[in-house]
Amino acid sequence: MGQAWGFGRYGGPEVQEFFDRPDPAPGRGEVLIRVAAAGVNPLDHLLRSGLVDGLDGGRPFPRVLGMEAAGTVLARGEDVSGLEVGDAVFGFALTGGGTYAETTVLSAPNTARIPEGLSPTVAATLPVAGTTAVDALDQLGLPAGATVLVNGVGGGVGLAVARLAIGRELRVVGTGSTAKREYAEAIGVRFIDYTAEDVAAAARELVPGGFDGIVDLVGGTSLRTVAPLARHPREVIAVGDVTVPDLGGRLVERRIDRENLERSARLALDGVLAPVVTAVHPLSDAPAALATVETGHAPGKVVIEVA
User: Fold this and answer.
1) Rounded-to-integer distance, Cα 113 and Cα 136, Å
2) How buried is residue 203: exposed, middle or buried, by Cβ count under 10 Å (0-12/13-18/19+)?
3) pLDDT in tens, 77-112
4) Rounded to an integer, what distance in angstroms lies between the CA atom of residue 63 and that of residue 234?
5) In this predicted structure, what is the pLDDT of residue 180?
6) What is the pLDDT of residue 55?
7) Roughly what angle, to the nearest 10 degrees, separates helices 42-49 and 286-294?
8) How far apart (Å, rounded) are the C-alpha atoms in residues 64 and 56?
9) Percentage of the chain lying above the pLDDT 70 cut
10) Could you give the residue ranges of the DSSP H alpha helices within 97-153?
11) pLDDT of residue 75
12) What CATH architecture does domain 2-125+275-305 belong to?
């Protein structure tokens, strides 16, 4: 038996609970891991709220929260290749197993070994933030010296996009709230505070000719404010807003396979994609970890350390 934190029905924070559960058995194409660290993401509370229930794997309640983790392989299911018992790994729990737990199952094709020298805490941030940053910037394909606007730069994904963009020698401008400024400017971002400035006017002043690319992490009205700042509508990549094609832009094309995870890990190890981890909580403090992210104002990446 191991402890887990999740929810007994769909709803708000009031449906969350700690509970004990047997170690889940890895199915075909899965590995059972002892969790060392789990990344916390906005999608976690959306799943709890029932807004995206198609991603929960159809498991019965109570369900465990979380979708990305790092840990050690304890057992393998059938048809698993490239991963062995005892391997330090990181990846996605795509079949609803949840990661805010002492043990969980990860999808083997979406799991990779952690390279020597990379901590589980850092590795646990890469499945979502790291691969999203790689995917968005690969899709833009901007040359060194080009300008990119990261709309919503202060969160875990936004800072990962900015850091990788700077590593690719792009000039980066980012928008965010006042609390995010120090984190963004510390890695070299020209920051626009949307709570104190007219974003469009400030961006045009910084880059009068328009941006070569825009990565949007906010959506909605904010996306519609910044989209006209791109030199060409097609160079607007949205991570979450599926209406971006209405503006001529594109939704990010996600690649969450082992190859892309390994690539993200190498970039992190080299310091090009090092995540900005701003809070680390023990499993017993998981409610506070998710509450911080659920506000929408958490800077950087929040991690739960389990082991």
Assistant:
1) 23
2) buried
3) 999 999 999 999 999 998 767 999 999 999 999 999
4) 39
5) 93
6) 63
7) 100
8) 10
9) 98
10) 120-123, 131-140
11) 98
12) Alpha-Beta Complex (3.90)
**Axis-axis angle for helices 131-140, 156-167 (nearest 10):** 50
Query: What tokens appear for 37 in the block?
Result: 């660290």
Crossing angle of helices 258-269 and 131-140, rounded to 10°: 100
Side by side, which strands form the sheet with 16-21?
16-21, 2-7, 63-64
What stretches of the chain show up as alpha helix (H) in DSSP? 42-49, 120-123, 131-140, 156-167, 181-186, 199-206, 220-226, 258-269, 286-294
Tokens 């904010």 label which residue?
Answer: 222
In CATH, the architecture of 128-251 is 3-Layer(aba) Sandwich (3.40)
| Cβ–Cβ under 8 Å, residues 32 and 24 | yes
Whether residue 287 contacts residue 173, with contact meaning beta carbons closer than 8 Å, is answered with no
Give the mean pLDDT of 213-218.
97
| Residue matched to tokens 């890469």 | 126
Joined tokens for residue 132: 């999203």
> d(Cα 272, Cα 146) in Å, to the nearest integer?
18
Pair of tokens at residue 75? 């057992």
DSSP 177: -
Burial class (CB in 10 A: 0-12, 13-18, 19+), 201: exposed
Rounded distance between C-alpha atoms, residue 282 and residue 121, angstroms: 12
Q: What's the distance, CA 306 to chain centroid?
A: 19
Residue 305 CB coordination number (10 Å): 18
| pLDDT higher at 282 or 295 | 282
Beta bridge partners of 303: 39, 280
pTM of the predicted protein model: 0.94
Q: Give the integer Cα–Cα distance in Å for 279 and 56.
A: 26
Tokens of 166: 């700077």
Q: What does the angle CA 236 – CA 240 – CA 244 come to, to the nearest 5 degrees?
A: 40
Rg of the chain (C-alpha set)? 19
Instruction: Locate the domains of the chain by residue range.
Output: 2-125+275-305, 128-251
